Amino acid sequence: MQYIACYGDSLVQGFPFGNKYSWTAAVEKIAPIKMLNYGLCGDCCDDILFRIRQYVLPEYVQHIPVSYTHLTLPTIRL
Hints:
The chain is α/β, with parallel strands linked by helices. The chain is built from 3 helices and 4 strands, in the order βααβαββ. The chain has helices at about 10-15, 25-30, 45-55, and strands at about 1-10, 35-40, 60-65, 65. Strands 1, 2, 3 and 4 form a 4-stranded parallel sheet that branches. The termini are far apart. The relative contact order is 0.30.
């Protein structure tokens, strides 16, 4: 089985209904893939990058897609 760690904002998290109703959960229902949902509502690009750098992912994770809305782009962490 493939494992994919998904980072992003509310689009990944599944807002407003939660992880159970996210697109990552929908992928798991139709494909033999385990989607690790690391989406957080309100995350900006710098937040996502910070979390990717801080968290140690399990070694069995093969891919790390990042998804965010255009509204999250302008934030810069100094």
